[in-house]
Backbone:
């Protein structure tokens, strides 16, 4: 629930803002912790809560974080103090959730906290990868460069992931519309024509009887079929959220022709990009592997990274530990080995990240080019069979007359 408040700060000046809390008591406590004397507080859930209720995840998009990182880099370049930076940006932030988060970060900074520690208090918005990059920037004194690196990384990651997802949205939409149209025809048009064909008394072709049978099934048992699909979908989602189900779902995705290859390249791109960004920023190898394991959106590759982390802690090289898994291509293993031997692992991983990003883009383009003609053919066959099943018997009746 979101509350707006009016208060007086330690200097006696009026202050206004909003706070996100589960109830009024928690909201009051949160405002008082900021060193403010509260004069008025009201719930604004009715006015502004709609956006909050219908936002997904943290309520802060990747685009918001990219813009934030660019703004932070610019202000740090201008030698503005960290506290002043976050106060300025929070005052201009359009996203209500991000604004409240930045206000809390500014309060933590005023209390003596470091930037990385303050951002780490909000893991739903700032990932472990983001926080560790900021910590590395604080240690090296290059926060402006770090924020630029983060913005560039998030831009690349968003572009690759969104393009891969968009490639799958188009066929899913077309298939959904096609199924909806076919169900509508089977339940409204086919039954009327079926009664005419049945009353004619002629022998119907097998494909026509199949179409009529499907129509009758949907009319008589369609509600039960829909209920079964909903219940089955519910339990499938619950199963996928378990460790065994998530592993099975990942295995299934990676085994799909063309699409599995796309996912594989996407995960490899994320792993290489995450690790090269952290290593070049001065984050130790072990920490880079651990954070990448928590960031990669695949149970299988997370398991590979976790096991590799244990192996590297035991004295093994990253290349030799990766070489044990068939999900890691030989070219990546060899390039990592070269990077370890030459001391240029960060730059090698940067090269491989760009390589796999191009591969993802090419795979998406190929998949889209392949899907379009295949779907046109399949949709044409489906509609053609349905029309033939209905029109051929009608044509026979007309000839008999």
Residues:
């Amino acid at each position: 629930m979101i509350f707006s408040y009016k208060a007086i700060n330690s200097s006696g000046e009026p202050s206004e803002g909003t706070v996100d809390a589960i109830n009024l008591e928690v909201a009051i406590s949160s405002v008082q912790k900021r060193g403010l004397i509260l004069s008025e507080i009201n719930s604004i859930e009715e006015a502004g809560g709609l956006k909050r209720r219908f936002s997904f995840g943290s309520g802060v998009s990747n685009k918001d974080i990219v813009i934030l990182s660019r703004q932070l880099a610019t202000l740090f370049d201008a030698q503005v103090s960290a506290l002043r930076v976050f106060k300025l940006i929070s005052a201009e932030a359009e996203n209500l959730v991000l604004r409240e988060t930045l206000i809390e970060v500014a309060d933590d900074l005023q209390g003596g906290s470091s930037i990385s520690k303050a951002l780490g208090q909000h893991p739903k918005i700032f990932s472990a990868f983001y926080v560790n990059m900021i910590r590395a920037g604080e240690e090296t004194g290059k926060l402006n460069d770090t924020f630029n690196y983060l913005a560039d990384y998030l831009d690349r990651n968003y572009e690759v992931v969104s393009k891969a997802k968009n490639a799958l949205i188009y066929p899913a939409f077309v298939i959904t519309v096609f199924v909806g149209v076919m169900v509508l025809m089977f339940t409204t048009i086919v039954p009327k024509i079926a009664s005419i064909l049945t009353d004619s008394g002629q022998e119907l072709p097998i494909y026509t009887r199949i179409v009529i049978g499907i129509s009758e099934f949907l009319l008589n048992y369609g509600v039960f079929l829909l209920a079964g699909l909903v219940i089955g979908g519910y339990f499938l989602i619950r199963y996928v959220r378990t460790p065994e189900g998530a592993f099975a779902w990942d295995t299934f995705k990676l085994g799909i022709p063309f699409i599995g290859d796309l996912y594989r390249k996407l995960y490899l791109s994320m792993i290489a990009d995450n690790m090269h960004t952290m290593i070049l920023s001065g984050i130790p190898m072990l920490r880079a592997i651990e954070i990448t394991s928590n960031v990669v959106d695949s149970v299988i590759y997370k398991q590979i990274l976790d096991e590799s982390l244990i192996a590297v802690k035991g004295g093994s090289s990253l290349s030799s530990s990766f070489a044990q898994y068939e999900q890691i291509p030989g070219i990546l293993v060899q390039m990592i080995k070269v990077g370890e031997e030459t001391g240029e692992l960060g730059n090698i991983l940067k090269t491989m990240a760009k390589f796999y990003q191009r591969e993802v883009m090419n795979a998406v383009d190929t998949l889209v080019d392949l899907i379009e003609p295949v779907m046109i053919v399949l949709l044409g066959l489906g509609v053609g069979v349905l029309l033939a099943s209905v029109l051929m018997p009608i044509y026979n009746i007309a000839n008999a007359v």
The two ends are 73 Å apart (CA to CA). Residues 62-154 form a domain with the Receptor-associated Protein fold (CATH 1.20.81.30). Residues 143-200 form the longest helix (58 residues). The chain has three domains: 2-53, 62-154, 164-401.
